[in-house]
Amino acid sequence: MTGLVYKSTGSWYTVKTEDQQVFECRIKGKFRMQGIKSTNPIAVGDVVDFELDETSDTVIGIINRIHDRKNYIVRKSVNLSKQTHIIASNIDIVFLLITINNPPTTTSFIDRFLVTAEAYAIEAVLVFNKVDTYDEAMQDEQAYLQYVYSDIGYNCLKVSAVEKNGLDELKKMMKGKVSMFSGHSGVGKSTLVNALEPNLNLKTKNISEQSKQGQHTTTFAEMYDLSFDAKIIDTPGIKGFGVVDMEPEEISGYFPEFFKLKDQCKFNNCLHKEEPHCAVKKALEENKIAWSRYNSYLKILEGDDEHYRQDIYNDDRIASDETRKP
Q1: What 8-state DSSP symbol labels residue 309?
Q2: Best exposed site among 32, 85, 127, 221 by fewest CB in 10 Å?
Q3: In 3D, which of 206, 219, 182, 209 has the Cα closest to residue 105?
Q4: Does pLDDT of 319 surpass 70?
Q5: In sequence order, what are the beta bridge partners of 165?
Q6: Could you give phi then psi for residue 155, rounded to 5 degrees?
Q7: What is the Cα 306 distance to its own chain's centre?
Q8: What SS3 class is residue 203?
Q9: Nearest 10 degrees: CA dihedral of 110, 115, 117, 122?
C-alpha cells in the first residue's frame, strides 16, 4: 500500500492512502535513510510504501520504503549538533510567520530560514502576523522589514488571525498546494490555521509575559486537509535555525541580491569579505544591500551556529537610514 505521512511522532507515523484510509505505522526494523544523518528518517509529507501487520489486536502498517523527495526543509538538530532534523518534505510553498515583538523574530533567523528554502528550491513567503497589535514603532519596524525583503523579491503578507485580515490573499496562495507554516513558538501558527479552517480547532497558548517567548503548542509536525483545496503542515515552534551542509563558496548563491552581482566581482570565487573589487561590498557601501542581510551572510559563512538559538535583534540594520525607507 502507498500513502502520505500526515503526522510523525518519531516512533509512530499516521499515513493516509489515496482512498482516505488512515493507518498508524511504524518503521521496519533496520530501515534508515541513505546519506542523511537525521534524527527523523521519515517526515511529514513523505510518500511511503507500507504493508499491513494483522498479527496483533489492532492492524498497524509497517513502512518499508520511502519514495524520492522533491525537496525538504532541514535544520540542525538542537541537541545533536552533528545530526539534522527534517521538518517536512515535498512542500510547494512555505510561509514563515514573523512577529515584531510578541515574540521578536530576528533578521538572522529569517535569513537562515530563507537560505535553506533557497537551497532546496522551495518558494518562501514572509507573513507578518498580529498586525492588529502593532504600535507606531512596530509598524515602522514591519515597514522596514517588508521593504528589505520585497526589494529582494520575496512576497510579503500582512495578516491578523484575530481580526481575519489578509486571509483571502493567503488562501489564494495556498490553493492547490502543500503549504508549510513555520516560525518561532508564539508567532501564531496554530491560531492562523484555525482562522483559515475554524473546524480544526487546534490548541493555542498565550505568550509568556515574563520572557516574551512563545510556549510550544504544536508538539509534532502534522498535515491537515483544508476545505479550500489545500494542505497545510503545521510545525512545532523553532527557537533557532542552524544551516546545514553548505560550502562557503555556495552560500552567497542563496542570497538572491548577492547572486545577481556575483558575475560583477573580480574573482569568480569571491566570498565578498576581504577581496578587492567586490560588487557585493560596493553595493553594501552604496546602501543597495541591507546591512542586516550582509551580517547574516557573514555569520552563516563563519559557521557562527553557537548563537543561532538566541533571540537578539541585530544592531547593524540601524547602520543605514537608506535601507529603512518605507
Answers
A1: T
A2: 32
A3: 182
A4: no
A5: 160
A6: -70, 135
A7: 19
A8: coil
A9: 120
Q: CA-to-CA distance for 98 and 103, rounded, in angstroms?
A: 9
- pLDDT band, very low/low/confident/very high, at 120 (cuts 50, 70, 90): confident
Report yes or no: 233 and 241 within 8 Å, Cβ to Cβ: no
pTM of this prediction? 0.81
Burial (0-12, 13-18, 19+ Cβ within 10 Å), 34: exposed
CB atoms within 10 A of CB 168: 8
**pLDDT confidence of residue 237:** 64
Residue pair 42/9 in contact by the 8 Å Cβ criterion: no
**pLDDT tens digit string along 55-111?**
878 889 999 889 999 988 876 655 545 567 788 899 999 999 999 988 899 999 899
* Residues present in the chain in total: 326
Distance of CA 307 to the CA centre of its chain: 18
Written as one letter, the residue type at 152 is I
- The CA–CA distances, whole Å, from 92 to 178, 180, 198, 233 equal 5, 8, 23, 11
Residue linked to cell 497558548: 205
Q: What is the Cα–Cα distance from 220 to 173, expressed in whole angstroms? A: 24
Query: Cell 538572522 sits at which residue?
Result: 108
